[in-house]
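Fig. S4 source data, part A: sequence.
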Amino acid sequence: MSFGYNIGYAAMAVLASACFAGSASAQQTMSLNYQSSERNGVCAFTVEGGTLPGTDKPFKFELSLRARDSNFGATIKVNGWNRAQAADPDANHPMMLEFEGAGATVSRSGGYSSGFWDMAWAGWGPGANSEPALALLQKSRFVRVHFDGVDYGRIDLQGTAGFAYTWLIQCRERLLAE
């Protein structure tokens, strides 16, 4: 009698754990926090970037892709950024993006601009110039941004590896089909 009870108890424990594991995995969700837009033929994917080094100012990090020529870009966007406001808008400051687990790329151009947003921007150039950066984006979920001698930290591009890439490419294809 005690032998049968132990087997029954063990079978119930296995069954209960299997049911619990099944319901736990069914309830797992992923929360995404990004903004997307398309304007004037440019697809943009924006995430929270953290805070500017040495300040408490939050920044947004935007990746963009111009549909007509596949020019890839990246922008740090802030309101009230003294560094951007004081910078020479004609100086060239390339941006380096280190895609975690994939590699790094340096833009061919970059700089500061101020207006509604204070920005550090970078562009890789049309077509073949942007392909290596896009290939790295396709393989990564996290990027570390370096611009004008400052490390802006590790930024979560949301979703899974390649999520931002897929959104930009699908947006470009949709715009080209119009």
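Fig. S4 source data, part B ends here. The radius of gyration is 23 Å.
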